[in-house]
Amino acid sequence: MKATHNPPTTAPVTPADLLRMAALYLRRHGWHQGTYYNNLFPTDFPTPPACAVGAIGMACAGHRADHFYTLDIDTQITFRQTVGVFTTYLDDHEPICAIDDDGFLIDEHTSPYSWNDDPARTAEQVITALESAADEWDRLHMQGGENR
Question: Where are the domains of the chain?
Answer without folding.
Answer: 15-141
